[in-house]
Amino acid sequence: MNSKVFMVVRILLGLFVLVFGLDKFFHFVPMDQSAMSEAALGYMGGLAAAKTIYLVAIVEVLAGLALLFNKYGALMALILMSVSVNAVLFHATLEPATIPGSLILIVLNVLVLFGYKAKYKDLLAG
What we know:
Layout: H1 3-26, H2 38-49, H3 52-69, H4 73-93, H5 100-115, H6 121-125
Helix pairs in contact: 1-3, 1-5, 3-4, 4-5
């Protein structure tokens, strides 16, 4: 992957997860909860009640900063993949109408993983 294209994708992913990670703390992105299904509200309520949503937010903020500053980006892109898969599964099963954002997230995440593939050679050597 071209280094300039990789840099743009890395920064886009970093900004994306940083904004949504910070939103979990500060609630600045408007969200219409009345439009969410009962199952989605229950799931989100469970994450909030168990404070798990804050763990996800911390991972997103740390991953966003790591990707923006290009420090430990390869590691954080791997960790962020679990958040990306979870987001796609949540939207695919509970809120299909709002899946585009999570698809953008996972595509950016896969592209960043591909961009860091040289860093994973020893890990994948077996």
